[in-house]
Amino acid sequence: MLTLSAPLVPPPQAPERDVAWQAAAERVLNCWLRETGHNVAGESITLVDGRSISVAVVHRSAIGHHRFGEITERTSQGRHRPITPQDLCRCLTRDVALRQTKTAVDPLTDALMGEIENSVRKTAQFLRHARQRAAADAPAPGSTLPRSTDANDLLRECEQALVFGHAMHPTPKASEGFTDDDLARYAPEMGAAFTLHALSLDGAPLPCHPWQASHLQRDPSMDALVRSGRLRWLGPQGPEVWPTSSVRTVYAPQTNRFIKLALQIRITHYWRLNPTEHVQRSLAVSAALDRIPAAETLTVLRDRSIDQIALPSALAEQLNTLHRDGPPRHLPPPVVVAALLEPCPVGGPSRLLRLVRESGADAADWLSRYLDICLAPVLELFVEHGVSLEAHAQNALLCVQDGWPAHLLVRDLEGGALVDGTPACAGLASDSPARYDAETAWRRLCYYFFVNHLGNLVAALAADTATPERALWAVVSDAMQRLACRGGAWATACNRLLQAPTLPAKANLTSRLLDLGERPRYVQIPNPLRSVNP
C-alpha cells in the first residue's frame, strides 16, 4: 500500500526514485485537496470518474500541508487495493482536467504527467547527489569534520540544497529544456559552478548564461546579427559564479552581487526569461524602496541596474540581465527560508529543527521572534507606503544568531507591486507595469507572505517539533492583534487578515495543467487565523 510519509524524513536506504515519486504524489494530493476544497478527514475521496481513494492523514495542516499514511483505492465491492504514486498522480490530474474541460482530457493529463515525470526524474538525481555528497563528507571514525563558517560557503550550501522544491506544486523540479548532462553543469542542486559567457552587441559587453549562449547561437535571428557585425560572441569570461535556488540567477562572490539572467527553460510554471515589463517593474519597485526609510530587521535587496538589449522583444527577453545587491556583509550569513523547511534528504532533522534546537527555545517562542523581525516591516511597507513584496519562502533569506531569527532579507522585485494612488507611485508613469490596484496588490501580499511563506513555515515548524499547528497560528494572531492596536490603516489591514473567512492561494495544479504561466488561477482556502481568532 502507498504511504506518503517518507518525504518528511526520507529513509537513507529508500531508492531515490521511490522517494521522489512519493514526494510528487504528496504534492499533487495536497494541491488537489486545496484546489477542490475537499476537507480530507480519513474518509474516501470520490473522483469525477467514480474512482474512490481512501486517504489516512497522519498530520493535518490548517494551511493544507498535510502528511499522509496509507493511501489505497476502494473497489466497488468495498475492498482496498494498492495504488502506486504514479497512478495516484494520474487519476488526480485527470480529475482536475475533467473539472476544467470535457474535451482534450487525456492530452492535458498526458502532458502534465510528462512534466511530473520530468520533475521526479530530476528530484531523484538531486537526491542521489545529496546522498553521495553526504557520504563523501562523512568524518572518519573518531574524528570530526569542521563546518565552514565562511559566509559565501554557508549561503551557497542552502541556496543549492532544495532537493524537493515547492511544497505545493505538482512539478517543482521540472526543468523543460535541461538534459541530465545540463543538470550536472548548471543545476544548483548538483553543486554547480561555472563561468558566464559574454557577448558584444553594438560594442557593449553583456553577460550570458552558458546554456543560453549555446541555445542562442543556434537561433537564426542571432546568426543574422553576427553576419551584420552588430553581435560578437566572446566566450567564457570573468570569475566563477554559482547558481542560486532559482537556477537562472547566479551569485558572484567576488562582487557580492546576484545576477538575474535569462534562460529559455521552463521551471514550475514559467519560462525563465526577462521581458522588458519584468525588468521595468523590478527597477520601479527598487526606486520606490530607495525613498523609504530602511527597517531595522528587514532588508529588501535592490535590483540596481539592467543590461537591457536594443533588440525586438522576442530576442531582448532572452538577453536582458538584472544586477542585484548581495546580502549585507555586516549581517550574519543568511539561509534561504525554503531550504529551512525542506526535509533533510539524507535523514535526520531539518535545518529548521536544528535552528530551533540551537536556540534552546520552544516552537512558539522561536516563531514569535521570527514574527518580531519581519511581520511589522512587511506590513508597514504596504500600509504606510503602498509596496507589496513577493516575499515567498524562496525569495526570503533569514539571518540567524545562535539559532534565533535576527534579520530577514527579501529579494526578486519583479514580483513586487506598487499600489496606485499611494506614495510608492509618486513620479511613476501611468502605464508602468509596477502599478497595481489595491485589491490585486493585497491579494499578492496575502498569498506570497502569509499563505506561502508563513503558512509553509508554521506547517513545517509544527510537523518538525510535534507542536499543534493551531497553537502556532495563535502566536501569529497575537502578533497581528498587537499591530492592530496601532489603529488607522494598521487596524484595517490586520483585522481584515484576522477576520477574513478565507485567504487567496495559487491553484498550481490547475494552472500548470492549463499552462497558465503568467496568469495563474487562484482559489480561496480557509483562513487559519480566523479559527484561532473567532
Q: Mind explaining what this structure looks like?
A:
With 534 residues, this protein is of the alpha+beta class. The protein has 3 domains: 2-121, no CATH class; 175-321, no CATH class; 329-502, Transferase(Phosphotransferase), domain 1. The protein has a 7-stranded antiparallel β-sheet. A hairpin with a 2-residue loop joins strand 7 (194-201) and strand 8 (204-208). Helix 1 runs parallel beside helix 2. The two termini are 40 Å apart. Residues 140-146 have low confidence and may be disordered.
Q: What keywords describe this structure?
A:
17 helices; 7-stranded antiparallel beta sheet; 534 residues; 5-stranded antiparallel beta sheet; 21% strand; Transferase(Phosphotransferase), domain 1; alpha+beta; 42% helix
Give the overall average pLDDT.
Answer: 92
Oligomer: single chain
Low-confidence stretches: 140-146
What's the number of structural domains? 3
Give a quick rundown of the structure:
The protein has 534 residues and is an alpha+beta fold. Helices cover 42% and strands 21% of the residues. It contains 17 helices and 24 strands.
What are the SSEs and their pairings?
Elements: E1 2-3, H1 16-36, E2 44-46, E3 52-59, E4 67-74, E5 80-82, H2 85-100, H3 105-137, H4 151-159, E6 175-176, H5 180-186, E7 194-201, E8 204-208, H6 210-216, H7 220-228, E9 231-243, E10 249-252, E11 257-260, E12 263-267, E13 270-272, H8 276-290, E14 298-300, E15 303-307, H9 313-316, E16 321-325, E17 334-336, H10 337-341, H11 351-359, H12 363-385, E18 387-388, E19 396-401, E20 404-410, E21 417-419, E22 435-436, H13 438-465, H14 469-484, H15 488-499, E23 502-506, H16 508-513, E24 522-526, H17 528-531
Parallel strand pairs: 14-20, 21-22
Antiparallel strand pairs: 1-4, 2-3, 3-4, 4-5, 6-12, 7-8, 7-9, 9-10, 10-11, 11-16, 12-13, 15-16, 17-19, 18-21, 19-20, 23-24
Helix pairs in contact: 1-2, 1-3, 2-3, 12-13, 12-14, 14-15
